[in-house]
Amino acid sequence: MSQHDKIRQAVTRLSNSGIQVSLFIDANEHQISAAADIGVPYVERHTGAYAGEEDEVSRLAQLSSISDGA
User: Fold this and answer.
1) φ, ψ for residue 47 (rounded to 5)?
2) Model pTM score
3) Cα 4 vs. chain centroid, distance in angstroms?
4) First CA to last CA distance, the chain
5) What sections of the chain are H helices per DSSP?
6) Are 26 and 59 in contact (CB under 8 A)?
7) Could you read off the pLDDT tens digit of each residue along the chain, which spans 70 residues?
8) Segments making up each domain of the chain, as ranges
């Protein structure tokens, strides 16, 4: 069983028990798509890479990735 399937089962079990589920994911297309495929109702995007960038060009690239994911 893949990690994807394990997470889907956990999300389903928790949701069926009345627990609201949110996944904390990186702000990239692959993880956003995987969360949508799993059917998780909420996601929180990790913005640590953006916060840790030291130059403006890198910060803008990270911000673009976060914005594109929205």
Assistant:
1) -115, 20
2) 0.72
3) 13
4) 30
5) 3-16, 29-38, 48-52, 56-69
6) no
7) 788 899 999 999 999 999 999 999 988 888 889 999 988 989 998 888 888 888 889 889 888 888 887 7
8) 3-69
Q: Is 45 helix (H, G, I), strand (E, B) or coil?
A: strand
Residue with tokens 């030291």: 54
Q: How is residue 18 written in tokens? A: 């009345």
Amino acid making up residue 49: A
- Dihedral pair phi/psi, residue 60, rounded to 5°: -65, -35
Nearest C-alpha neighbor of 47 from the set 23, 65, 21, 22: 65
Spatial CA neighbour of 10 closest among 28, 23, 24: 23
